[in-house]
Amino acid sequence: MACRLALDRRGFLLAAGAAAAEPALAQIDVGEASRLRSLVPAGELETASAQEYQQMLAQARQQRALAPDDYPQLQRLRAIAQRLIPVAPRWNDRARQWKWEVNLIGSKQINAFCMPGGKIAFFTGLLDQLSLTEDETAVVMGHEMAHALREHARSRIAKTRGTGMGLSVLSQLLGLGQVGDLAANVGTQLLALKFSREDEVEADLVGLELAARGGFDPRASVSLWEKMGRASGGGDGPAFLSTHPTGPDRIARLRDNVPKVQGLYEQARGAR
Ligand SMILES: [Zn+2]
Q: Among the options 136, 144, 151, 209, which is catalytic?
């Protein structure tokens, strides 16, 4: 598709400043995003997400669990995001308009997410308990951003609510008259949303490329999931790990795909 190529090229120019040097077939092909997602309007979902996110931040603030702007761990997260955000529109043009936010919640939970519209949260448990390096943190962030960019929540909601449904029907079902209610219902649903296996594979691959284009070592994806695997060993694993099962398949797939983005990583590093 011509327009897609043009967008890709523009995205690349923004990211690395040398489109001509891009290795052929460097981008991992994950195909078109699910067509079902068009049944749920993106703008409405992004508004609902933003409200849900603000509610979550307010709650965290009340519990004195929201990291202040000058908190070093939060500053490191935001610095990573600053390198990933410019390459994000390659996967979703809407991302150019997103008001990206990155926050850190003080919690033992091993968790992180990026809601539709670019609202990112990390929990200190993920960073601390797994002792994540900068590159590993970037791979997690890339993975979560990929869920938002590929609009997995949107297609997941469309699928669970049935086909042929516009927002008005969605609103009726949820008993919505206004956006505030949408946030209360869809938003809560968003935070609890479980992605499919296919969504997870896609988020792994897109996240890998995002991280590489941002100048983060894609090999960190392997060590990251090895750490996740060790953390989930036995008993009730943390919530994030139950929705993100790690195993030899996941790690092998990442390892197989690292060479495809290695050139992009080296190029991004060279440009920094
Ligand atoms: Zn995921």
A: 144
**At 255, which helix (H) or strand (E)?**
helix 248-271
- Give catalytic status of residue 144 as yes or no: yes
Please tell me whether the overall predicted TM-score, pTM, comes out greater than 0.85 for this model.
Answer: no
Query: What's the gap in Å between 55 CA and the centre of ligand 1?
Result: 22
* pLDDT tier, 26 (very low <50, low <70, confident <90, very high otherwise): low
Q: Which residue has the higher pLDDT, 39 or 68?
A: 68
Ligand 1 mean position to 5 CA, how many Å?
27
State in Å: Cα 182 to ligand 1 middle: 23
Residues with Cβ within 8 Å of residue 47, at least 6 apart in sequence: 117, 179, 182, 183
pLDDT for position 242? 67
Mean pLDDT confidence for 226-246: 69
**Cα of 102 from ligand 1 centre, angstroms:** 17
Q: What is the DSSP string of 66-127?
A: BPPTT-HHHHHHHHHHHHHGGGGGGT-GGGGT---EEEEE--S---EEEETTTEEEEEHHHH
Question: Model confidence at 191, in pLDDT bands (50, 70, 90)?
Answer: low
Q: Which residues surround ligand 1, an ion (CB under 5 A)?
A: 200, 203
Position 7 scores a pLDDT of 28
**51 band by pLDDT with thresholds 50, 70 and 90:** confident
15 CA distance to ligand 1 middle (Å): 24
